[in-house]
Amino acid sequence: MRKSFLMMTTALALAASGSATAATGWYVGLAGGASFVEDSDYRAVPGATYTYGLPVRESWELDTGWIVTGTVGYKWASNWRVEFELGYRSNDGDLIDFAVGDVGETELTEFTQFLNVLYDIPLSSRVNLTLGAGIGGDLVEYDDNFPLNNFDDDYVLAGQLIAQLGYEVTKQLELYVDYRYLVADEAEFVDTNGPSAFSAEIDKHAVQIGLRYDLVRDEEPVVIVAPPPPPPPEAPRQFILFFGFNKWNLTSDAQRVVGEAASTAKQVGAASILVTGHTDTVGSSRYNDRLSMRRATSVKEELMRNGIAPEQISAIGKGESELLIKTGDGVKEPQNRRATIDLP
Questions:
Q1: Which residues are CB-neighbours of 252 under 8 A, at least 6 positions away?
Q2: Which residues are registered as beta bridge partners of 206?
Q3: CA terminus-to-terminus distance, the chain
Q4: How far apart are alpha carbons 114 and 138 in whole angstroms?
Q5: Which end of the chain has the smaller Cβ count within 10 Å, N or C?
Q6: Cα separation, 315 vs 258, whole angstroms
Q7: What pLDDT, in 10s, does the model give residues 270-301?
Q8: CA angle, 153 as apex, 151 and 155 as ends, to 5°?
Q9: Three-state DSSP class for residue 35
Q10: Cα–Cα nearest to 160, from 9, 12, 34
Q11: Alpha helices in the chain (DSSP H)
Q12: Per-residue pLDDT tens over the stretch 179-220
């Protein structure tokens, strides 16, 4: 069952990395929190003497410890991320003899290295739910605080499942909380002072709070308002507003443009308003179709907040099919990331 889990995380990492497309850039992260180790019985290693005597009748019960992790990763416009993670965990606890109870103290520390693959699911313009998995190694150090025992470290294969909830504080900084479940191959501890050795399973849970910082800042959205025609003055019939890369939320300037469009529609008595969303060529056509529709929907909702009845507004998404600036595939072009408001 444990080997199946490790194989599953490896397969997910390979499949997801092949699905990533247009790049949005590098990021770094740092997190810390609480680490919890599941109780585990000790097992005698065949051919070795068990440190605490035979038959094997001990287990560890470890208290809540601490964890710190650092990450360097790369995110794609398709919402996939791949990152390399270094982590350090430490837990103290008790050595439990099944017959007499607590017989001493134990300490377990681990240095982990993981390759993680994650997928961000937008819940709103600022909130993301992230699910992922990782595969890597776990350097385990065990100390039972008995003066005559000195156990070697062991390095084992490990995998983890990850769930995160993130909030975009700024365009480059994200605050997140995460839960992760780590499972590793059975670690073997050999006493360098004698022929004794034993092994134990390591299953861990962790809860962290962290910060993620994008090393490349998204371009600032450009807002363009069509100028009024020459005298006699007439109200403009089309309004254009622009969005940040891979965004559909409205900036304050964009909200001002939508407010002007709503005021004009009321003045001229427009019976119908057409809102059309567009994207640049970064990402797949299917993804950009959905993104353009989200942009059109954001504009429609802002028009409704400005007093326009919903039945007066039609919202459609054109994806990357009608570029304002002609470019090749995979090109970030701010003027193509737009929505238009057309009055009859």
A1: none
A2: 35, 180
A3: 64
A4: 9
A5: N
A6: 14
A7: 889 999 999 999 999 999 999 999 999 999 99
A8: 150
A9: strand
A10: 9
A11: 2-19, 252-268, 285-305
A12: 999 999 888 877 777 666 777 788 899 999 999 999 987 665
Q: At what angle do helices 285-305 and 252-268 cross, to 10 degrees?
A: 60
**E-assigned strand segments in 51-126:** 58-62, 65-76, 80-97, 101-122
**Same fold: 2-214 with 238-342:** no
Q: Domains of the chain: which residue ranges? A: 2-214, 238-342
Q: Which residues contact 64 (CB under 8 A, 6 or more apart)?
A: 34, 35, 36, 91
Please tell me the distance from the alpha carbon of residue 17 to that of residue 130, in angstroms, as a whole number: 16
Residue 53 and residue 158: Cα distance in Å, rounded? 29
CATH C-level class of 2-214: mainly beta
Q: What is the mean pLDDT of residues 320-342?
A: 93
Q: Phi then psi for 314, rounded to 5 degrees? A: -115, 135
Q: Compare 33 and 226 and report the one with higher pLDDT.
A: 33
How far, in Å, CA of 48 to CA of 296, rounded? 70
Give the span between the Cα atoms of 206 and 182, in whole angstroms. 8
Longest dimension (CA), the chain: 101
234 exposure class (CB count in 10 Å sphere: 0-12, 13-18, 19+): exposed
Q: List, in sequence order, every residue forming a beta bridge with 178; answer none if it has no partner.
A: 164, 208
Cβ burial of 298 (10 Å; 0-12, 13-18, 19+) is buried
- Long-range contact list for 95-100, CB < 8 A, 24+ apart? 95/52, 95/58, 95/60, 95/144, 96/58, 96/59, 96/60, 96/61, 97/52, 97/57, 97/58, 98/57, 98/58, 98/59, 99/57
Is CATH 3.40.190.10 the classification given to domain 238-342? no
* Whole-prediction pTM: 0.58
What is the rounded CA–CA span in Å between residue 89 and residue 141? 10
Q: Which residue has the higher pLDDT, 18 or 258?
A: 258
Distance in angstroms (rounded) separating the CA atoms of residues 208 and 253:
36
Which of 277, 273, 291, 225 is closest to 253 using CA atoms? 225
Return the amino acid letter for 42.
Y
How many Å apart are CA 190 and CA 142, to the nearest integer?
Answer: 10
Q: Which residues does residue 242 pair with via DSSP β-bridges, in sequence order?
A: 338
